[in-house]
Amino acid sequence: MEQAVEDYAISPLTSHTGAEVRGIDLRRPVDDALRTRLNQAFVDHSVLVIRDQKLSAPEFLQAMQVFGEPFPQHNPRFRVPECPMIHYVSNQDRYEDGTIYIPGEGYHTDHSNDPAPPKATALHAVKLPRRGGDTQFVNMSEAYAALPQETKRRISGLKARHVFQSRHSARKLMSLPEEKRESLAGSVVHPLVRTHPETGRRSLYINPVRIEEIIGMEEPQALRLLDELLAHATQPRFEYRHQWKHGDLVIWDNRCLLHKANGDYPVEEVRYLYRIMLRGETPV
Ligand SMILES: [Fe+2]
């Protein structure tokens, strides 16, 4: 039986970012009215925390089609074997030198080196550490709106080159398998300020892991500007910090948020989540 719109409750988590959804079971079909309301809530709140789900990887893939079409993620080494459109995020992988790899540390936006980066990413908790491992989000529309007029003028019209792994990145990504190296070797150019296709709001679109240069700007000046914008955008007043609970499914809007993971829990505690991304638009 389909779930009706009146079955669920939605409540904001901060004044600007995040809302909690209770009372739905994403294994069951969603009717048109509920689909519309969930998509509107996603656009309005930028992060939806859908509580009390228990989805297998194929069920997660199916359920997220309420919000859009799956986007093929870049590094196939993280595919979940029984459902390759779903990847996993885990603290159990190691770099080639044996050190532990914590994916997603440091603020970033997903796969911005793609010509049309994913509009959304969703994670579903499978195993969580007893404490820690929060995901932090900052709202880049709010951050842009709060910039001084002079800064808005200074960055208007600027474009940045995004690559798989910026040489300026403080974080090292897990290397790509041979067959993907060539297809992801290129770069794309995106505006530094993008307009959300659904809300019409402007957002900063920066990514310390992937921005290689600002077109037409000297490197020291570009790096200073990016640092300044990042410091502004990552202030607590723009943040929603998600503390994971068992059963959580969190979906967020990459078009107007940065996010980061925290590796602040004992390494022997497993943290394992399913991840999917949904197709997005070319940023303008
Ligand atoms: Fe990420």
What this model shows, in words?
- The protein is 19% helix and 26% strand.
- It contains six helices and 16 strands.
- The strands form four sheets. An eight-stranded mixed β-sheet has the order 1-2-3-14-6-16-5-4, covered by helices on one side. A three-stranded antiparallel β-sheet has the order 13-7-15.
- It is globular, with a radius of gyration of 19 Å.
- It is of the alpha+beta class and 284 residues long.
- Fe (ii) ion (FE2) is lined by residues 104, 108, 110, 259.
Q: Layout of SSEs?
A:
Layout: E1 9-12, E2 19-22, H1 32-45, E3 47-50, H2 57-63, E4 79-80, E5 83-90, E6 120-127, E7 135-139, H3 140-145, H4 149-155, E8 159-162, H5 178-181, E9 188-191, E10 193-195, E11 202-204, E12 211-214, H6 219-233, E13 239-242, E14 249-253, E15 257-261, E16 272-278
Parallel strand pairs: 2-3
Antiparallel strand pairs: 1-2, 3-14, 4-5, 5-16, 6-14, 6-16, 7-13, 7-15, 8-9, 8-12, 10-11
The chain binds fe (ii) ion (FE2).
Fe (ii) ion binds next to loops.
In short:
The protein has about 280 residues and is an alpha+beta fold. The chain has helices at about 30-45, 55-65, 140-145, 150-155, 180, 220-235, and strands at about 10, 20, 45-50, 80, 85-90, 120-125, 135-140, 160, 190, 195, 200-205, 210-215, 240, 250-255, 255-260, 270-280. It has an eight-stranded mixed sheet, with helices on one face. It has a three-stranded antiparallel sheet with strand order 13-7-15.
